[in-house]
Structure formats: structure tokens, C-alpha cells
Design a protein that fits this description.
By secondary structure, the chain is mainly alpha-helical. It has a single domain, classed as Glycerol uptake facilitator protein, CATH 1.20.1080.10. It is 72% helix and 3% strand. Strands 1-2 form a two-stranded antiparallel ribbon. Helix 4 crosses helix 8.
């Protein structure tokens, strides 16, 4: 499988499962209605870990322009591959968001406009441009800093023995990444909803603007630049800092 196809499919799975858990928790009439923040954060953690486990061998499982640009900034990903990575990530995010709408269409039609948008894209709990930007910057900084740390730890390990069973290092890395997503959501996500991924936020936001939904409101384009620019800067900064301190 090509790295381009892996990034497309992996991002589609990530957004379908990730936005899907949000839809289940907040849209009216679902079986999971009012599931709450814990359900959403755990769902997102596995929504990231599963495609990492599925497609990591083929593309490195970026699924996030901030990850791609961060890794390129320290020479891990070739700059010539960056446009393809990012294009496939956005196309995958479009597909994932469309599938969430297709599955939950009746429930979107029962829900109000802010709730509909909240399935697709993040928004601040308290609107404050500077602080919202810092929140997304720091959240993505922690994402890349910890991912690079985990990758360094398992760099020369092929398998680990756990309770008499051999577990591949790739599997441990995948669920390590899921654990990072979980703790970022639980610890840092309350301010802006922890987009920490331009494709995950902007792709579904564009799909929200396109799709027909009863009572649909604004896609909040005035805020949309923050979960794009701040994660990119946070991811690149974290990669450069890790590279400087870890060599």
C-alpha cells in the first residue's frame, strides 16, 4: 500500500470514528446522548490509535498536517512528500466527516445549529483569540513532543514481553499515541476542544458548510484559522525542541 493511500484511509477512519463518538454523545435522540466528556475523550483516543495500528507501517501514520510538517522540519519526512501527505489527510477527513453525517443524518436534523457544528469542528469554551491560540499551540506541542519521545524509546525494539506474551513495539506505540490523545483531551481539551490537527478540524468544517442539514447555522469561519495555524506552529516547535534536546 502506498503512503498516500494509507494517509487517506487512516485519516478517514480517524475522523469517522472520532467525530462519530462526538455525534453519538451530543446529537439528540442517539443511544449515547449526553454521554459526556469522558466518552468523547476515550472514543477519540481509540479513533486515533486504531488507524495508527492499521497504517503505521505504510505511511508512519501521520493523519495530521501538524505531524507531517513537524517531522519534515527535523528531516524525518521528506519535504517532497509533504504536499501529498497533507492532500490525502484532507481528502480522508472529508470522507470521514461525510460518513458521520450519512450515519447520523436524522439526529443532525433533530439538533440545533451549534450542536451540529460541534460534531464536525472544535470551538472554544470561552472565546478569547489569544488564549484559544495558546491552548491549541500547547496541546499540539505536547502531542508532537510526546510522540517523538515514545518513538525514540522504542526505536531499537521490535517486541516487548508482557505477561509471557510478545507484543510488537508498533502495537505499543499505537496505543501509546492513543494514550497521548486521551490525556490531552482529559487534561488540556476543556478550553478549545483540542483540535490539535488542522485536517481533523478544517476538513469536517468545510464538509459542515457543504452538507444539507435542517436548521444548519454558521461554520464559524472567524475562529477556523486558530485550529489550523496554532497546531502547525505547535507541532513544528515541539519537533525542533525535541530534536535539539534529544539529538
Amino acid at each position: 500500500m502506498s503512503y498516500a493511500l494509507a494517509e487517506f484511509l487512516g485519516t478517514a477512519v480517524l475522523v469517522y470514528l472520532g467525530d462519530g463518538v462526538v455525534a453519538n454523545a451530543i446529537l439528540k435522540g442517539t443511544k449515547g446522548f449526553n454521554g459526556g466528556w469522558i466518552v468523547i475523550t476515550f472514543g477519540w483516543a481509540f479513533a486515533v490509535a486504531i488507524p495508527v495500528l492499521m497504517f503505521g507501517t505504510y505511511s508512519g501514520a501521520h493523519f495530521n498536517p501538524a505531524v507531517t510538517l513537524g517531522l519534515a522540519s527535523i528531516g524525518i519526512t521528506a519535504w517532497s512528500q509533504v504536499p501529498v501527505y497533507i492532500l490525502m489527510q484532507f481528502l480522508g477527513a472529508f470522507l470521514g466527516a461525510f460518513l458521520v453525517w450519512l450515519q447520523y443524518k436524522n439526529h443532525f436534523d433533530l439538533s440545533d445549529a451549534p450542536t451540529q457544528l460541534g460534531v464536525f469542528a472544535t470551538g472554544p469554551a470561552i472565546r478569547s483569540t489569544g488564549r484559544n491560540f495558546v491552548s491549541e499551540f500547547l496541546g499540539t506541542f505536547m502531542l508532537l513532543f510526546t510522540i517523538l519521545g515514545i518513538g525514540s524509546t522504542f526505536q531499537d525494539i521490535t517486541a516487548v514481553d508482557i505477561a509471557g506474551a510478545s507484543v510488537s513495539a508498533n502495537a505499543l506505540k499505537a496505543f501509546g499515541v492513543g494514550g497521548i490523545i486521551l490525556v490531552i483531551g482529559l487534561s488540556l481539551g476543556g478550553t478549545t476542544g483540542y483540535a490539535i490537527n488542522p485536517a481533523r478540524d478544517l476538513g469536517p468544517r468545510i464538509m459542515h458548510a457543504i452538507l444539507p442539514m435542517k436548521g444548519k447555522g454558521s461554520s464559524d469561519w472567524g475562529y477556523a484559522w486558530i485550529p489550523v495555524v496554532a497546531p502547525i506552529l505547535g507541532g513544528v516547535t515541539a519537533s525542533l525542541v525535541w530534536h535539539a534536546v534529544a539529538g
